[in-house]
Amino acid sequence: EPPVLKVDDLAVEFRSRRRTVNAVNGISYSVRAGETLAVVGESGSGKSVSAQAVMGILDIPPARITSGEIRFRGDDLLAMSRREQRAVRGPGIAMVFQDALSALNPVFTVGHQIGELFRAHRKASRGEAREKAIELMERVGIPAARERVDAYPHQFSGGMRQRVMIAMAIALDPDILIADEPTTALDVTVQAQIMDLLSELQRETGMGMILITHDLGVVNEVADRVAVMYAGSIVENGTVDEVLAEPLHPYTKGLMASMPSLESHGDRLHPVTGTPPDLSAVPSGCAFHPRCPLARFGRAAAPGKDCAADVPVLREVVPGRTAACHYSEELEHE
Ligand code: SF4
Ligand code: MG
Q: Which residue is closest in CA terms to ligand 1's atom 6?
């Protein structure tokens, strides 16, 4: 079965008069029906920007998609007119944001905001839209939905607002749901409830999911595959089980070491220290080299594998597993 969504060699830059920032440098991934791909990295790694490009909320200056394809059910969205793109994305790809309070409109009731989707896309009457809104609120676990359909966003708790946003996202039965740090703003017990809700909805609907997160503990619990991003590039990808059992990139290892919930791996790892690079001045060679405990330079490096001079390409290190590091083989069976 072909993937529902296939991103190929996607690049995004931000341009101002003074500088150009390559936020995403030619990344590729795909998502199949029912599958969850986690895109992991620190802030500024390009994980949100790439998802916003897929969602079509990024192609306005100063952001520019400079290359690549975004194929949804086989058709390249980037080759379509804006109008055609909207017709495909509207019902097909939906997004849940980190901050529900700013994503929802404060001056309309939640019932109105959910119902509008059915008015706009399904030509529902006011009454039908209201019933649909109540149905969806119930489906995402909002208690007393019929009584609360006319309440405003600020009258809901953070967790309940996130459920409202999820209700809006699944309203039109999307094939792909993009969830960008959907639980970061919530407290820990509510985080778990929201992740459970997303997994449950995914099982019911068979939608594919892109989960953007910095939390490898969440990845471990809900994702099937993982793509690790650093400085605008994917530096490792594979199945979650394989990547977490045996990371093939030092950055992935470092992220794992900083996750207490993965502590069985923690003892022999070094957490990542330092800060992610300024994307307008990315380090030469491997962008990770200033922070990498394995980096080798000059005569200490193998020929063509100087970490400050030679850019490591994403390559298949073991069957089905790719990483962009000159020395991945040394991490195997470590
Ligand atoms: Fe570290 Fe060099 Fe590998 Fe980059 S290529 S991750 S600097 S060892
Ligand atoms: Mg982000």
A: 325
CATH number at residue 73: 3.40.50.300
Ligand 1 centroid distance, CA of 303 (Å): 14
Report the residue among 229, 255, 307, 334 best suited for mutation to probe ligand 1: largest number of ligand atoms under 8 A from its CB.
Answer: 307
**Tokens standing for 319?**
């069957």
**Residue 184 phi, psi (nearest 5):** -60, -35
Domain count, the chain: 1
Write the pLDDT tens digit of every residue in 198-248.
Answer: 999 999 999 999 999 988 989 999 999 999 999 999 999 999 999 999 999
If residue 169 lies in a helix (H) or strand (E), which one and from where to where?
A: helix 158-170
Residue range 67-83: mean pLDDT, rounded: 95
The complex scores an ipTM of 0.96
Q: Which residue has the tokens 């290359």?
A: 67
Distance 101 CA to ligand 2 centre (A): 16
Q: Please give the pLDDT value at position 261.
A: 63
Which ligand is nearest to the Cα of residue 41, counting in written order? 2
Does 319 reside within a domain? Answer: no
H/E stretch holding 20: strand 20-31
In a domain, 333, yes or no: no
Ligand 1, atom 4, residue with closest C-alpha:
286
Residue of minimum CA distance from atom 3 in ligand 1: 325
Q: Which of 270, 303, 262 is nearest to 288 (CA)?
A: 270
Domain of 23, in residue numbers? 1-104+174-276
User: CA-to-CA distance for 100 and 185, rounded, in angstroms?
Assistant: 9
> Ligand 1 pocket by C-beta < 6 Å: which residues?
249-250, 286, 288-289, 292, 294-295, 307, 312, 325-327
- Counting from 1 in the atom list of ligand 1, the atom nearest the Cα of 296 is 2
Q: 91 C-alpha to center of ligand 1: Å?
A: 42
* Dist CA 282 CA 195 (whole Å): 34
Question: Does 138 fall in a domain?
Answer: no
Domain for residue 79, yes or no? yes
